[in-house]
Amino acid sequence: MKSLIRIFAVMRKEFLQLSRDRLTFGMIVGIPLVQLLMFGYAINTDVRNLSAAFADEADTHLSREFMAELSASQVINLNQRVSSVQELNQLLDAGSISIGVYIPDDFDRRIIQRDRKAMQLLVDGTDPIILGVAQQLAALSITFDSQSNVRSDPSLIEVRNYYNPERRSAVNIVPGLVGVILTMTMVLFTAVAIVREKERGNLELLINTPVKTPELMLGKIFPYILIGLIQLIIILSLGRFLFAVPLRGSEVDIFYVSLLFIGTNLSLGLLISTISKTQFQAMQMAFFILLPSILLSGFMFPFEGMPVLAQYIAEVLPLTHFNRLIRGIILRGADMMSMWDELAALAAFMIATLALAIVRFNKRLD
Amino acid sequence: MIDSEFAITSRGLTRHFGSLIAVDNVDLRIPAGQIYGFLGPNGSGKSTTIRMLCGLLTPSAGSAQVLGMDTRKESEKLKQLIGYMTQKFSLFEDMTVRENLQFISEIYAINRKLRKSRVDELLEKFELTDRIKQKAGSLSGGQKQRLALAAATLHKPKILFLDEPTSAVDPQNRRDFWETLFELAEQGTTILVSTHYMDEAARCHRLAVLDRGVKVADGSPRELGENIHSHVIELSAEDPDLARAALSGEANIISITQLGMRLRILIPKESNNPIEIVNSRLAQASIKADVEQVSPDLEDVFVAVTELRKEKKETKEVIAA
Q1: Is the same domain home to A135 and A277?
Q2: Which of A209, B20, B220, B236 could bond B290 through an S-S bridge, CB–CB 3.0 to 4.6 Å?
Q3: Rg (CA), chain B
Q4: Domains of chain B by range and CATH?
């Protein structure tokens, strides 16, 4: 009971102070606006080793040779074989592959008679870079060693663009931007909010009261959760009205996933605040997290196209996991529980950082 | 409480910051219900000692008991019983006077029904009622100080730690402030106040003189004056500068302080006829002056104990060399 009173006291204080800090208040609205307009246009790059799966219903010499040729291009990584086109669709929905190759059982006949499309590339078109890769693949002319009179060319390959038939990059950028903006503002705001109290001497007063460390931390975090949700709404509504980004998944899933991600970033901000002595240091550290988050999380470049080391680094960034979740839900209509491992990664990150922040935050000055 | 006579005791309290010894082996026995002063210049270790007693800093060595509780182990329990007013007042400057007090009342989890009346009572008592909607940052020094004191006493602490509470306020406010402190002490609150003002130190029931981390003297202001190791000579002259120059060569003089047309001269207790020492010097330079022996005040005490320590240190250094 007393704990609750104190948590609410800290919360109320944060709201009061926030409502009077016009600059911060402006940033809450300004950052999403500016970023959205800035990143509205995508960056293209060369990509290799996109994860892919194939369903080879023909399973003939020709089809195997064809798959080997696709593999040899090194653009996709065909290490997963499934038995049906339905399974390919499921893998695409869950976000575990970017490209699915489907070869029907009459592949040989189709490729010899050349009257119908002989195979399909099923592509997660939400990322324009991946779509570009699929089109390069489709443009390959493949000759077969076993039957030299037969040849596959672009006219026989059908590229099916899932999720983003209009090929608009904004579709991919906007959900990604949700994560980038939340990382930027949430980490920074909390980190600075505590360090500022340190600098102004308020903390010396606070730590001399019976307020407990977790009470102080939770009271500080809650108001920013609300702010994070406001930002989420701003970005998604703008994305909808300015860039016509579809919202295929459930709003409830988006809410939960974002809530978890906001909590993760706030904990990270708290941790930074316990390490830095000045607001400037706090900002530097926040940017230290932000830059790799933008570059490596899959926001700018497809995750699988990055070097292995970069992928490892990316896996410890919360934004990487959030990007997979939010893109999955918004663009592919995925159920959040189909990506439970990403949820678990975020939750683990949040608990670890919050615990570390509470341990590190010393109610002493030494 | 093991020893209810003393609100605060410490033994060998020491604190290092790297190679700097901020507080060096300080023993304290502070009686309950009194106003106890820490007198010392900036950097003498007053704030560091107060912070250690509040449990905000961990001592490098030694220990302290506040209300019978160890400041290392039981600092959280102590927080409910002590009030602390920092040098900078540490108010939330972007919040109004009422909001600041409201926040503090919630942080101390004061019963909801009593909260508002307690805040109102304090606003009234500290004459802040007409300022409730003003931001703390725009208050004057005196108003900030009153608000900080209101915040520090809101939960009715048994001990109040005040770290140079009057350094930013005018003399009238200082007088009023001390009136309030006496009222609090009468109601049973133990008050530990640090200051570098002699007149404030003189108002304390007891005080400790701190010099570069070391407690060089303690006792009531009267005791300190009586136990001073110097004679105090006051000299009035037409030209105090000339008189000062004439006296500067005298080895028996500990220090000379100018107060307008007067000089205040400290001479070791061992000298049998201090007035004669001064007069003979003045006669040599044929300067006319009124010379009389006076009773020491706190400033004399302060100068005497710190000069004495300086001399001892220098002697040691000479021997060492």
Answers
A1: no
A2: B236
A3: 23
A4: 6-220 (3.40.50.300), 225-320 (3.30.70.100)
Phi first, then psi: what are they for A132, rounded to 5°? -60, -40
pLDDT 10s digit of each residue in chain B, 321 long?
444 689 999 999 999 998 999 999 999 999 999 999 999 888 899 999 999 999 999 999 999 999 999 999 998 899 999 999 988 878 899 899 999 999 999 999 998 889 999 999 999 999 999 999 999 999 988 899 999 999 999 999 999 999 998 887 888 888 999 999 999 999 999 999 999 888 889 999 999 999 999 998 899 998 988 888 888 999 898 888 888 888 888 888 888 888 888 999 998 888 888 888 888 888 888 888 898 998 888 888 888 888 777 776 666 666 655
CA distances from B92 to A10, A14, B112, B135 (A): 12, 11, 22, 9
CA contacts within 13 A on the Cβ side of A185 = 29
Name the residue type at position B79. Answer: K
User: What amino acid occupies position A315?
Assistant: E
Q: Do A202 and B91 touch (CB under 8 A)?
A: yes
**Residues near B111 by Cβ (< 8 Å), separated by ≥ 6?**
none
Residues A189 and A312 in one domain: yes
A230 with A258: CB under 8 angstroms?
no
ipTM: 0.77
pTM of structure = 0.74
**Contact residues on chain A for B58, CB-CB shorter than 8 A:** 364, 366
Cα B263 from Cα B235, distance rounded (Å):
5
Distance of alpha carbon B277 from alpha carbon B267, whole angstroms: 9
> Does B57 reach chain A within 8 Å, measured CB to CB?
yes
- Amino acid, single-letter form, for residue B142: G
